[in-house]
């Protein structure tokens, strides 16, 4: 039985009953467990689908996928995401049309019908099973670390998009994306996703500045005594763009190898899933 974020992924009826007992009798989640939803267990591939919206127009971003587990081979505890890539090969063009038609546009229409003016990012966390999208969650924010590779592929000026969103002129924007692929690898602190160390000096950032096609996004860092030090669980998102996923992955790994801080750890198999799917 897998318990994560208030969700029990039961593999059998007995496990489901044990889960209900844990929540409703043993009160593992306190009052939050007074009501439960029982639904089909989805065992496909997770993907992130984000879009800009001004409440009327909705413009999809390129697809992306993250790696949620802390260790290689999708093992260990869940994290906010140890790496990500774009595009996500599991999201074909047909599937993207289906997601827009069945998920994204209906949400905006539903919000309009309820008189809610929603402007910003709509992010659907999806499970793709048998080539069909199932919604796991919606977020009204960008995905982290999915946004790092997605933004590296954005050609259109982000500030112009943001202004068009707030001014409700998104229909005037022609979103353009680079055809290349991008990969982000997260460098995390010792202990993450549990209690983690802070204040470790980060070395190697200057070396990466000299590299083409690589950007390091700072997540959990502080600038202290003229030095970058760690101050969060997920510290850096080392992100590269390349002609395809493999190329981007190789560049990102070449870059992250130049970085060092005490206790640093990162997954060694980011984007392997996408590369295998393409082979
Ligand atoms: N990477 C998952 C999220 O941003 O929720």
The chain-level structural class is alpha+beta
Summarize the biggest pleated sheet.
5 strands, antiparallel
Number of strands: 15
Q: What is the second-level CATH architecture of the largest domain?
A: 2-Layer Sandwich
Bound molecules: glycine
Note the main attributes of this structure:
279 residues, D-amino Acid Aminotransferase, Chain A, domain 1, five-stranded antiparallel beta sheet, four-stranded antiparallel beta sheet, 7 helices, Glycinamide Ribonucleotide Synthetase, Chain A, domain 4, binds glycine
Notes on the structure:
The chain has helices at about 15-25, 95-115, 145-150, 160-165, 205-210, 245-255, 270-279, and strands at about 1-5, 5-10, 45-55, 60, 65, 70, 75-80, 85, 120-130, 130-140, 180-190, 215-220, 220-225, 225-230, 235-240. The chain is α+β, with helices and mostly antiparallel strands and about 280 residues long. The protein folds into 3 domains: about 1-40, no CATH class; about 45-170, 2-Layer Sandwich (D-amino Acid Aminotransferase, Chain A, domain 1), CATH 3.30.470; about 180-279, Glycinamide Ribonucleotide Synthetase, Chain A, domain 4 (Alpha-Beta Complex), CATH 3.90.600.10. The chain is globular and about 50 Å long. The protein starts with a strand and ends with a helix. The mean pLDDT is about 95. Bound molecules: glycine. The site of glycine (GLY) has 7 residues, from loops. Glycine binds near residues 80, 81, 143 and 144.
């Amino acid at each position: 039985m897998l318990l994560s974020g208030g969700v029990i992924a039961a593999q059998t009826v007995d496990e489901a009953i044990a889960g209900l007992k844990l929540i409703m009798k043993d009160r593992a989640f306190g009052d939050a467990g007074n009501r439960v939803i029982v639904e089909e267990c989805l065992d496909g591939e997770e993907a992130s689908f984000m879009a800009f919206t001004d409440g009327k127009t909705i413009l999809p971003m390129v697809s992306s996928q993250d790696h949620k587990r802390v260790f290689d081979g999708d093992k260990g505890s869940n994290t906010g995401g140890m790496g990500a890539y774009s595009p996500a090969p599991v999201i074909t063009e047909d599937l993207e049309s289906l997601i827009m038609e069945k998920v994204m546009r209906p949400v905006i229409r539903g919000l309009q019908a309820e008189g809610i003016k929603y402007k910003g990012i709509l992010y659907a966390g999806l499970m793709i099973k048998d080539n069909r999208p199932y919604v796991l969650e919606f977020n009204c924010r960008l995905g982290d670390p999915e946004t790092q590779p997605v933004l590296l592929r954005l050609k259109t000026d982000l500030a112009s998009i943001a202004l068009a969103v707030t001014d409700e002129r998104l229909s005037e924007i022609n979103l353009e994306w680079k055809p290349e692929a991008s990969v982000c690898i997260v460098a995390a602190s010792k202990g993450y996703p549990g209690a983690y160390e802070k204040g470790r000096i980060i070395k190697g950032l200057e070396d990466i500045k000299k590299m083409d096609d690589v950007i390091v996004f700072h997540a959990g860092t502080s600038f202290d005594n003229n030095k970058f030090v760690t101050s969060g669980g997920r510290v850096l998102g080392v992100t590269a763009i390349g002609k395809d996923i493999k190329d981007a992955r190789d560049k990102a790994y070449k870059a992250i190898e130049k970085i060092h801080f005490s206790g640093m750890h990162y997954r060694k198999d980011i984007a392997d899933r996408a590369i295998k799917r393409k082979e």
